[in-house]
Design goal:
It contains 3 helices and 9 strands, in the order H-E-E-E-E-E-H-E-E-H-E-E. It has 198 residues and is an alpha+beta fold.
């Protein structure tokens, strides 16, 4: 699931950054790339590109059902499931260009895109994978000391960059157990991350 999210964000930004630079000669190389696996220790950011890098994964505890262990389907059948795993991803975009203003321009285009599209769903982003209902992106501003910690952890020289929190990746339990039909007082259907009764 995490890989689908990052690939989707990379691809949608590639489309935007290509369209956002009219008059520039077409390039066979992507504007947004991932780290080269052979050059990850120490990290080497590709020249003349923006590198998307997963910094951390956080579990979201706020959005939980009242009874996370039981769900009722539309047909009245009860299921016992483990609570959905809800994740937020902290993704950094690092711009490395020979000309400093080019790096700033690419980061500005990324900010403009996410400012105009803070929520990505099937309506605003038709290529969103079917098992992901929506993603929202928030720009994070770290204090200088924390930024220094991040770059020290990466063991890399500072480059112009942006940090975004991608909310919320929902991973449901794929091993649900049928408990049986609901008896007694009717229960309200639980709504899963896809927006349908489960």
């Amino acid at each position: 699931m995490i890989d689908k999210v990052l690939v989707f964000i990379r691809d949608i930004l590639n489309v935007h950054l290509t369209a956002a630079a009219p008059g520039m000669p077409p390039s066979a190389e992507d504007a947004v790339v991932f780290l080269d696996g052979d050059k990850s220790d120490p990290i080497s950011f590709q020249l003349n590109a923006v590198t998307a890098l997963l910094i951390s994964v956080e579990q979201e505890h706020v959005l939980r059902a009242a009874n996370p262990w039981q769900r009722v389907a539309a047909d009245g059948m009860a299921y016992q499931v483990r609570p959905d795993l809800r994740l937020n991803l902290n993704v950094m975009f690092v711009a490395r260009f020979k000309q400093y203003q080019q790096a700033l321009a690419q980061l500005s285009r990324i900010m403009t895109f996410f400012q105009s599209n803070p929520i990505l769903d099937p309506r605003t982003a038709p290529l969103l994978p079917q098992d992901i209902q929506q993603l929202s992106l928030d720009l994070l501003t770290l204090p200088l000391a924390e930024q220094n910690d991040v770059w020290n952890a990466l063991r890399a020289a500072f480059q112009p960059s942006l940090l975004y929190r991608v909310r919320t990746i929902v991973i449901p339990d794929s091993q649900a157990l049928v408990v049986g039909p609901v008896t007694g007082e009717p229960q309200r259907d639980m709504i899963d991350a896809s927006g349908s009764a489960f």
